[in-house]
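Hey, weird one. I pasted the Substrate-binding domain-containing protein sequence into the form twice and got a warning about non-standard characters only the second time. First submission, copied straight from the form history:
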Amino acid sequence: MKTNRWRNRILWMAFLVCLVLIFCLTAFHRPILNGKESESSSDQKHKVVFIAKSTVSGFWKSVYAGASNAATACNLDLTFEGPKSEEDYETQNQMIAKAVEDGAEVIIFSAVDYEANADAINDAAGKGVKVVVIDSDVDSDAVSCRIGTDNYDAGCKAAEAAMKDENEEIHIGIVNYDKNSDNGQKREEGFRDSILRDERAGIDAVINVLSDTENAKKRTKKMLKKHPKINVIVTFNEWTTLGVGYAIQELGLKDNVRVVAFDSNVVSVGMLETGEVDTLIVQNSYAMGYLGVETAYKLINGYSIKDTIYTDTIAVDKENMYDEECQRRLFAFEKSNKN
């Protein structure tokens, strides 16, 4: 009997030790990020505000998907917002000021205007808020990290696609958007530097349109009527891609004009299938969102970071659009609902 009592006591003590261990493991568990423990507890999440150029395009919905998943992995309180128009830098500046007022520790930002957004970003940084830029840069030395496409290189890829045109003479029309948007200008620079190495190529016309489908369509049709020799058009973002595609469709020129464009949504992919668009330069928008939030987490917790991170682009055409990698990039996330 005495032996049984001791044995029961030992079993009971072992049971209590197990309970304590389980409690400790549960109480001190933290989410893991890239092999490291998150220092944010579920009771007190660090606040991060993501101010995009827009929230409605396919590109920015994909960015949000990446950002949202990273916020969950890092246990961060993430707010994602942007103006209704990709021309509206003033609303962005108001959002920056509001984010500071609301206690954001990091602002992730994509600038509508390289210069006009700079003072608001500098003011935020001066009040102790860390800044991470993705996609579109801002003229500020206060930015901790810049993440996005190597836009010059992406412009060079667009030129390579344009040079696949088999005409003896390549007459080019460039449809770019806001001159104050840094990424569009760098894409055009890369395109120009590459395309003019081809002796067949010349640039017949350059227009800068609003980052809006209807305006891009109207201006492209006007350009084509004024410069009928144009047989290649290059354009540099999602909305101008749609505008150019619709212009080609309405003028019945898909067999006469090669279109090299940027980004993707359900409509532009349809244009790739039917021939209004010949090549899409597709960015890794999901990775931009994910890396932006991951970098914010690292800044909050004192980890070292890179000052520049480039995400990749791929050129998608009718020949490779059904390849697995292209399909993942084209149809990664929510479809755009803007025509």
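That's the output from the first submission. The warning seems to come from a hidden character in my clipboard, not from the data itself. The radius of gyration is 25 Å.
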